Amino acid sequence: MIDHISVGVSDLERSARFYEATLAALGLSRLVTRPATIGFGKTYPEFWINLRAGMAPVPPESGTHICLRAKATGDVDAFHAAALKSGGRSDGAPGLRPHDRVKYYAAFVLDPDGNRIEAVTFPSE
């Protein structure tokens, strides 16, 4: 249903380093580089970062987050570890999150600007 998504970042190079490492754990790589935007994806850019030089940090109460699908729990773990190593902050450690309708394994991180990014997979066991 959604073709691509983008987030604003205040420092394009810092965010590029963060997202290159973090998204690699989910099989995405840098595919497009332009002066004020970078696109990541598997075969085409599906996740973009856009320079917004005067942007204030994203407030924690914004409620907005982006969830990306991982193939396995190990990929979620790698996503979280890469984010922390690359200047992000944890907003929910990797783990199983059972709910009424579905059981899923996820991790939440905040990028250097406060954008909330989740990686999720749905283990069969």
Explained architecture:
The chain is an alpha/beta fold and 125 residues long. It is 21% helix and 42% strand. The strands form two sheets. The chain has a four-stranded mixed beta sheet with strand order 1-4-3-2, with helices on one face. Strands 5-8-7-6 form a four-stranded mixed beta sheet, with helices on one face. A hairpin with a 5-residue loop joins strand 7 (103-110) and strand 8 (116-121). Helix 1 (12-24) runs antiparallel to helix 2 (73-85). The longest helix is centred in the N-terminal third of the chain and has 13 residues, at 12-24. The radius of gyration is 14 Å and the shape is globular.
Number of domains: 1
Q: Tell me, rounded to a whole number, the average pLDDT.
A: 95
Number of helices: 2
Rounded to the nearest angstrom, the distance between the terminal CA atoms is 27 Å
Provide the low-confidence segments as ranges: none
Give a short summary of the structure.
The chain is α/β, with parallel strands linked by helices.
List keywords for this structure.
125 residues; alpha/beta; 4-stranded mixed beta sheet; 2 helices; 42% strand
Secondary-structure blueprint:
Blueprint: E1 5-9, H1 12-24, E2 29-34, E3 37-41, E4 45-51, E5 65-69, H2 73-85, E6 89-98, E7 103-110, E8 116-121
Parallel strand pairs: 1-4, 5-8
Antiparallel strand pairs: 2-3, 3-4, 6-7, 7-8
Helix pairs in contact: 1-2
